[in-house]
Design brief:
about 190 residues; mainly alpha; 3-stranded antiparallel beta sheet; 3 strands; globular
């Protein structure tokens, strides 16, 4: 089934939808990732000793998933730390609603923190996104996604690297967290 925006050029739009669906299928295919990874060994070489360390019997170019980690010893499994969570500065500075949401992270696998970004910061991020798009430094990918703005803007990066947030994330992931990607959406996520 195809979504039609209008009847301006129905045939062209119909074929465009087919093409977009084909690209989406290829993007979601594990084979396409393996082929891509095969030609980027230099960028993935750091994974080879990690595969050995964790007993993952795959080649550097092979896609991995959570099922590859099922047999790991408990020393490698993230430990839940509700007390450590409650002791973080980030948690202590939150509303009761946000504290409750954060305390449900281990149960739900996610938390929603309302008001983390102020409306002024949101305006600043939006202005940065507009600037980056106007300069050609940032373009839409995969439909409506703006990827890796943190690598183009120190302003956006600094919000993601908030010291209190990083301390909280370190507790939640039971290790050192690292900001490596950002995805901005104009009209919500897919």
């Amino acid at each position: 089934m195809y979504d039609y925006i209008g009847l301006v050029n129905g045939n062209t739009y119909f074929h465009c939808c087919k093409l977009l669906k084909m690209f989406s299928f290829l993007r979601d295919s594990k084979l396409s990732y393996a082929v891509f990874n095969f030609f980027h060994k230099k960028k993935l070489a750091h994974n080879i000793p990690l595969f050995k360390k964790y007993g993952i019997k795959k080649k550097y170019f092979s896609p991995i998933s959570s099922s590859d980690f099922k047999e790991l010893e408990t020393q490698y499994i993230r430990q839940e730390n509700p007390e450590g969570l409650a002791n973080t500065t980030f948690y202590q500075h939150q509303t009761h609603e946000n504290q409750y949401g954060l305390s449900q992270y281990y149960k739900n696998g996610y938390s929603i923190v309302r008001g983390f970004i102020t409306s002024e910061q949101a305006d600043t991020i939006n202005a940065e996104i507009d600037r980056l798009q106007a300069s050609g430094e940032l373009q839409f990918r995969y439909g409506n996604k703006l990827m890796f703005a943190i690598h183009k803007s120190e302003t956006i990066k600094s919000i993601g690297l908030d010291k209190e947030l990083m301390q909280l994330l370190d507790v939640l992931v039971d290790g050192k967290s690292k900001l490596f990607q950002s995805i901005n959406f104009i009209n919500g996520s897919q």
